[in-house]
Design brief:
The structure is a single chain. The protein is of the alpha+beta class. It is built from three helices and five strands. The chain has a five-stranded antiparallel sheet, with helices on one face. A hairpin with a 2-residue loop joins strand 3 and strand 4. The N terminus is likely disordered.
Length: 131
């Protein structure tokens, strides 16, 4: 009985160490940049499903679909209060314009997303390894 309990305690200790190590790794690696350029650089490397995994579902999404197949070829996604300007204030809306499966343009807006003419816009540079 004592050996089984000691073995179980040892196993639990190893499992807890493993889990805490993976949580720490996720916490440091999972921190997404809030600044404009860091965010643009980071999202430019991610596909649609990776974006959702890191940022969650967008607050608003519009899809452009092909008439014949219904395949989504472009999307406009809006997230709220996830990015900061140079002074540290949050932008009200961050717009991600996706073509196929990749972000092509990021727009930081100080409104609800209804007026993108007054925002800061960045074109995402394609990863040369993907070309």
């Amino acid at each position: 009985m004592m050996k089984a309990q000691t073995w179980l305690n040892g196993w639990l200790a190893v499992a807890l160490l493993f889990m805490s190590g993976s949580v720490l790794a996720e916490g440091s690696a999972g921190k997404f940049p809030e600044d404009e350029q860091g965010f643009v650089d980071a999202v430019g490397k991610l596909n649609r499903s990776q974006l959702v995994a890191l940022l969650g579902e967008p607050a608003r999404a519009e899809d452009v679909k092909l008439k014949d197949s219904g395949r989504v070829v472009a999307s406009i996604w809006h997230y709220h209060n996830i990015n900061k300007d140079a002074q540290g204030a949050y932008y009200q809306t961050t717009e991600l314009d996706l073509i196929d499966d990749q972000v092509s343009v990021v727009v930081f807006l100080n409104n609800d997303g209804s007026d993108n003419s007054s925002g800061q816009s960045y074109e995402v540079q394609p990863n040369p390894a993907d070309l």
